[in-house]
Every structure is written in structure tokens, then in C-alpha cells.
Known about the structure:
Elements: H1 2-5, H2 13-26, H3 45-53, H4 58-70, H5 74-89, H6 92-107, H7 123-142, H8 147-162, H9 170-211, H10 218-230, H11 235-300, H12 304-358, H13 371-388, E1 392-399, H14 402-428, E2 434-439, E3 442-448, H15 452-467, E4 471-473, E5 476-478, E6 482-488, H16 495-511, E7 517-519
Parallel strand pairs: 6-7
Antiparallel strand pairs: 1-3, 1-6, 2-3, 4-5
Amino acid sequence: xxxxxxxxxxxxxxxxxxxxxxxxxxxxxxxxxxxxxxxxxxxxxxxxxxxxxxxxxxxxxxxxxxxxxxxxxxxxxxxxxxxxxxxxxxxxxxxxxxxxxxxxxxxxxxxxxxxxxxxxxxxxxxxxxxxxxxxxxxxxxxxxxxxxxxxxxxxxxxxxxxxxxxxxxxxxxxxxxxxxxxxxxxxxxxxxxxxxxxxxxxxxxxxxxxxxxxxxxxxxxxxxxxxxxxxxxxxxxxxxxxxxxxxxxxxxxxxxxxxxxxxxxxxxxxxxxxxxxxxxxxxxxxxxxxxxxxxxxxxxxxxxxxxxxxxxxxxxxxxxxxxxxxxxxxxxxxxxxxxxxxxxxxxxxxxxxxxxxxxxxxxxxxxxxxxxxxxxxxxxxxxxxxxxxxxxxxxxxxxxxxxxxxxxxxxxxxxxxxxxxxxxxxxxxxxxxxxxxxxxxxxxxxxxxxxxxxxxxxxxxxxxxxxxxxxxxxxxxxxxxxxxxxxxxxxxxxxxxxxxxxxxxxxxxxxxxxxxxxxxxx
Length: 522
């Protein structure tokens, strides 16, 4: 009876035994006490119901199932954490394997314990309903485009629905294994096809870039798209890049309109200039003819009065020619002012477009350099280091247990953590140092004019500062740490092998216990 007293009310049958089994393993005695985390209580029935209350879509349902299992104790909690990690990564093959192991190791070994005189379904029936719901709402939706796997999932769901406690699970077990195997094969095929499509698109962008002139704004847009293809296809990064490119396209449209207006103004100015020249030529010809007429009339004049009249006519013709010349000059000045205004608009739009193009070098979430911006900076700093002979160091940082932050506090909490990390680390760096985001929770530091010993000290200072400065998210203080590897640049070394050496050191820091800095030894 003592064993049953710790079981939350409302749990019956097989789930009660699952609870008791996990509770026993979560609370061992003596030296095994380390296996239990006292800061994480076992999930209650109300919490379990709350997880599935709004799980009406495949991603939410799959995540809720993983969180529910992770709320149990002992080995079941570990199994749930595996389901959570697979769900966060979108690794449905791993998720299927974990579900199969869950069924094979725990669920099939639990005898049904219906409660006498109660209409409440037994725990095995509840679990059957949850698995059926998972297959119908989640797996079927994910496989809807594959007719064969979709039909196979439906058959398994129908068989699971018809299964009754006490019946053998051999047939369903085989169907589930076959489905997981087929999903694994399909996942590999889809991954290969996606990789081929990405490489094809990258090749197309590379060819387009070769056709562009140096300095074209399209180079930045193509570089941003290629950088996106090179990393994991994160929805947030895709949306950020799409928003940035849309703004660039909008600015280009304004620039094109400004160029068209400038061309039209220049055309009008040239047309007006030619027309005025033609008018002046005609007027000059007429004036020449009038002057010849007046000269002959002066020669034929018989009196001073006639000469005076001729002089008045000459002055009037001269004044008229002058007025025409002044009008032509004023018209040309006006058209030139319009052309200059159009040119100023074009120059302003070019400056705005250059500013927007520069945004593709910065990560929009954290304001750190993105991969493109960091690669440009590395090329400049490595060239300078080669000329000056000064040392150059690089550090690769990976946040510890960041997936748990995302799983516990959602993507908003994860985004807040990333911004906090960049702000704190940037405060620990010098003015000449730079931080870039390589994707996800991975960051890279570039430390010019820095010896290897100094670089280790700078990164260690940043690590300590971050560990000592939690941030507040939804009234909860969260601590973020990182593991880092530091490598020193070799003369003539490109970025990739340098990053690889720092990456190996970073993984060594992870293996040594996380929240530490390791030096690259090779």
C-alpha cells in the first residue's frame, strides 16, 4: 500500500504500474540517488491532461506525447527526453525507434488492470487511444504525400484501434517495425532528394553570380541565399532572409523608377536643347535677313528721319532675338535642374539600397554577423595578418543544452536566450573582436592581433561572464552556458580547416563536462 500512496489520483491499470516503476527508479537509495533530479517533480494527472488538451495538430500532438513520457520517472523520463530531442530535430526515424522501444520494453509488458465497476477505460486502453491518436493525427498527416506509407499507417492505426487488452501484440509489433523501417528509408530518400535540390539551386545561383558585374547588389542577395542553403533550413532564418530580400527588391524597384525618371528628364532636356537651338538658328537666320534688309534700307535713306526709323527697327529686332535667347537659356536651366534632382534621387536610392544590402551580412535576430558577413571579415583579417605577421585566433562556441531551453520555454525563450548570449559576449570582447552566428545555437569569435594564450583568456572571460549573468524570461531566471574550442590561424590557412580545428576542440570541451573552454592541439 505504501507504494500506491505516491501514485497521483486518477491513474489506474497499466499507467499506475508505469508510474510506480518510474517512481521507484527515480528514487533509488544510496549511491544511485544521483539518477533522480529533485528539481523536476513527476508529472501529475492534471498536467498530463493539460498537455493533450490543445494538441489538435500533428506537431503539437507529437510534442505533447514526448513531454508526457518525459514527465515520468527513471528510464521512462530518459525515453521521453529521447522523444523530445527527436521531435525538436524533426528526426522522425529516431522518434519512431523510441516509440517502438517504448512499446516493446514497457507497454507490452504491462498487464491490464481494469477497475471493477468503473466506466473509466484501463490504462492500456488509454495508451492504445493515445497511440492511435498519434498515428492518425500526426504520422498520417506527415506521410500524406506518400500513398504507400499513408495506407500502411492507416492499417496500423485500424489494427491498433481494434486491439483489445489481453490480445497478442505480435502482429501490431511487426507492422510498427515495418512502418518505422519504411519511414526511415523514405526519410533518407527525401533527405537525398533535398540535398540534390539544394546543390542544384546553389549551382544555379553560382552561375548567375558569374554573369554579374563586380559590385552588383545582386552579389549580396545571391551570397545570402547560398549561405542559407549551406546551413540547416531553419524556418526563422528562411523568413528573415526572405524579408530582407523583399526589402532589397522593393528598393531596387524604387531605384529603377528613379533611373527611368532621370532618363526621361535627360531626354526632355536634350529635346528642349535641340528645339531651342533650332529656334535660335531660325531666329538668327531671320535676324540676319532683317539686318541685310535694314542695311539696304539705310543705304537708300534720304533723310535723318528715315535713318532714325531704321535704327529703331534694328534695335527692336535685336531685342527680340535677345528675348528668345534668354527664354531658351531659362528653359535649359529648368530642364537641367529637373535632371539634377532626378540624379540626386537616384544617388539617394543607391545609398539606401547599399544599406539594405548590408543587412544580409547581419543576423536579424541577434545582430551578430551571419555566415556571409563573417566570411568577408575573415578574408580581410587573414589577409591583414598575413601582411603584418600578427597572430589571429578563432573560437567556436556552442550553447549547452539549448534544446532543453527551446523545449521548456518555447522558441520565444530560445530567441531571448540567443540575444542575451550575444549581448553578454559582445560586452566581454574588445573593439577589434567580432562575433558571428553560424546557425542555430552555434557562434564564432574572430580575435585579430591576439596570441593563443590571450585568446583563451578572452573566451574564458566571456564564458564566466555569461554563466554569472542569468536573464529573465516570463519572470523566470534562466542561466545559459557554452562550451568553446579555440584555434590559432596558420599562415595561408583558409577558414574551413581553421573552423574544423576549433570545432574538434569544442566537442572535447563538451565531452569533458560542458561549460568550459578547450584549446585546439593539432
